Structures are given as C-alpha cells and as structure tokens.
Amino acid sequence: MTTIVESTSSIAQERRVVTAIPGPQSQAMHARRAKVVPPGVGAALPVYIAEAHESIVVDIDGNQFIDFASGIGVTTIGHTDDAVVAAVAEQVARFTHTCFTVTPYEGYVRVAELLAEHTPGNHEKRTMLCNSGAEAIENAVKIARKFTGKNAIGVLDHAYHGRTNMTMAMNFKNSPYATGFGSLGTSVFRAPSSYPYLDGLSGEEAAERTIWYFEKQVGASDLAAIFAEPIQGEGGFMVPADGYLNRLQDWCHENNVVFVADEVQCGMARSGAYFASETFSLVPDLITVAKGIAGGMPLAGVVGRADIMDATHPGGLGGTFGGNPVSCAASIAVFEQIERHNLLGEAQRVEKTLMAGLRAMQEKHPMIGEVRGRGAMIAIELVEPGTKKPDAAAVKHLVDEGFQNGLLLLNAGTNYNVLRFLPNVRMSDDLIADALGVLDAACTSYRK
Ligand code: PLZ
C-alpha cells in the first residue's frame, strides 16, 4: 500500500511530451487490443496509461498529460488522492464483497447517510446504490413508475442518460449510442430543453414550451417522471435559463409526476456545490448519482424522497455488486476530502480561472461563440465566426492539438462543436494557464 502511494505521489505536476503521440509502446498495445477488443469500444486518444496522480496522467511511453477529462468527470478530487487510496487498500484487505442484499455492511449505510446530508433539501431521504450511471437511471425509472402507477418517461433534447436498453431510448442522439442495436425501451417522450445561447428564451418561456410538448405528446395523467440533467453533460454543458428547471419541477408537482435530476456528470462538487441542483435552488424528488462519488471506483445510486423510494416492494431493487464495500470506502473518503480541503471552494476557483482565461481567448478568437458552465465543468461552443453555425472541425483541431501537446480534452455537443473542460477541482491555476496557452495557439493556427 505504501509503495503505491509513494510511486504515484512522485509524478511532477507538469505536461511532458517525449514521443510522438501516441508513442511506440502505445501503438504496439493498440495493435494488441485490436485483436481482442471490438471497435465498438472506442478510445478518444489511444495512449495507454501507466499511472496518474492529481492532475497528471502518465502513459507507457512516459508522456505526461494534464487531465481535462478526468475519465469523463470521475476523478473530481484528483487522481490517486492519498485518502482514497488508503481507504480502498484498507477495505480490500478486510473484505471485498458479500453482496449487500445477502449480508449487509456499514459502508453502504454510511454512503446513504452522506448522500442524504449533502443532496439538496432537508426532507427525509433514502438511497439505493448500484454500479453505473445508466443503472441508476434505470432504477429511477422503475421507482418513479412504481410510485406513480404511471408509465411514460419524459426526457429533454440533447440529453444523455446511458447505454443500457432503457437509457439508449432516453438519449437524444440515436447515433452512435443506439444505431442498429434493436428495439429500444418504450414510452419515452422528448421535449425541447433550455439552450439560452441558441433559443434566446427566458426560463419561463422555455419551461412553457417543454411542458406544452409533454402535455400534447403524452399528457400528465400518463407521465411517471421527467428526467433532466441540471447542466447537460454530453449535450454540451448548457446551463439552463434561470427558473427553467424550477418551473418544470413545479409543473411535475402539480401533476403527480416525479422530477428526477440526473446529476451523474454535474454532481458531487463538480459545479462548485455538492450538487448542481443547489445552484438553481432546486430540490429534486430523485437524484441520480455516479461518476465522481467514489473517486474512480465504480459506484452509483438513486437518492430521493423517502415516500417515493419507499414505494418499492421488498426485494424489488438490488444487484450483485451494487454498493460494493470497496467503492463505498472510496466514496466515504471522497466526502471527507471535500470537507477537509474545501473542495467546493476549489471548484469555484477553477471556474473563475477557466472562465476568465477562456473569455479573454473569446475576445481574440471569434470562433468561440460562447463560454459557459459552472465550477470545474466549463465549455466553449465553437462556431463559424459571425454566426452560430456549429464548427465541429474547430473542436477536432483544438482537441488534436491538445493531445499532441500534452492535454487530455473531450468534445461534447449534439453537433460535436463543444470543447469541454472537466479538470479535477484542485487543478492549479498554473496548470490551467499553461493549458490555455496551448489552446490559444491552436485557435490561432486553425485554418491558417
Ligand atoms: N447520465 C448525465 O453523463 C455518462 C458517457 C460516456 P454510466 N456520461 C459519459 C460514454 O460515451 O459512454 C452519463 C452521464 C449522465 C448518465 C450517464 C451514464 O453513466 O456510468 O456511463 O453508465
């Protein structure tokens, strides 16, 4: 255990490119992979990782990348945080699995207590734990249907909820998530969301439009739940107009519809609050959580109003690995670290630094149409200058230039024209400034 901590802690917090990207070792590994892993499982950048600490990921060729992906918003408090590593090592040595629904253990209960404490609202809450974001959504669908006795599920344009059968049906984009994969989960209805940069609507106007769609397409009497990501992740980090989510939830409450906030990507300190709902003064009925809640260990859950959660019958919820004890130990350590090191404040610092840097870049580069987001969840939407026409090639250019220069970056957006930043909340201002320098040069070199 000590060896692991010492070897990772020694990684210098700087980018360092020592080979072509991907390097020779990674290329050889990629060829090995192609013989045994299907192409359906993608790789944004096929460099193979040897180790990671805090903000830096090191590949097997010795290249060091500044990590703005965090494994798609998972290692929110940084890679191999000492307290998380120690908690995991300690729990692994005690027991790794019993199945909570066979013989339970404290870690699961403690995570449920921490989620009850740190999700919005002082009402009584319950939590069920599972393994992935998609599984959390699947469970929230089951719970909302059971509670309301209704069937239909409402989702929003640009939404992403997962890759299982039901969640594939809930995603906005059919391609690549569902193409050719057969018939989808049924009774899913979709309505326009709030996308202030493109629709120019107030929160009230956008909510009225969303509600109109649901009323006309399905009707409240058949609708069990509406799912909304408070800040959409894969869709491109759209921050909805003020009051939008609140009006939608009010309508849900007037009509016995469960309002579910999918906080899989925007939750757990990412937005500068524990949960992004809080930044909109929103107290959702159910919240789905995953990704950042366990420092890189697989853990997810549904947290919500006791009356809704308790509508499920004994034995109705479960799964072999749900709430694995090692993942729970990691999660408890993440909560402790957020408190101990004021990581909500740190996420707010990252927002200030990134926003200021990106806004300064926007002044120079009219290809940056909008800078938006909250906390350590910031994006730029790239457009053809003077228009709002999406420019996916510009995002590809910036991401590729980033890769070649030691930055791990992800695209986003229905039109692939959004560049998103998902750093850990402790990334230093110096590393952010260094990365923005690379991107500024990449903007300058675009179409030159
Ligand atoms: N809900 C809001 O962001 C996962 C998808 C990566 P899982 N987003 C990353 C990919 O291409 O597979 C996500 C999300 C929101 C649900 C999910 C699903 O979470 O843990 O990937 O199942």
Automatic annotation (TrEMBL):
Q: Name one Pfam family in it.
A: Aminotran_3
Essential cofactor(s) = pyridoxal 5'-phosphate
User: What's in the keyword line of the UniProt record?
Assistant: Aminotransferase, Pyridoxal phosphate, Transferase
Which one GO biological process term can you cite for this protein?
Answer: gamma-aminobutyric acid metabolic process
Keyword presence, Transport: no
InterPro entries tied to this protein? 4NH2But_aminotransferase_bac (IPR004632), Aminotrans_3 (IPR005814), Aminotrans_3_PPA_site (IPR049704), Class-III_PLP-dep_AT (IPR050103), PyrdxlP-dep_Trfase (IPR015424), PyrdxlP-dep_Trfase_major (IPR015421), PyrdxlP-dep_Trfase_small (IPR015422)
Q: PANTHER family recorded for this chain?
A: ACETYLORNITHINE AMINOTRANSFERASE, MITOCHONDRIAL, AMINOTRANSFERASE CLASS III
Q: What is this protein called?
A: Unannotated protein
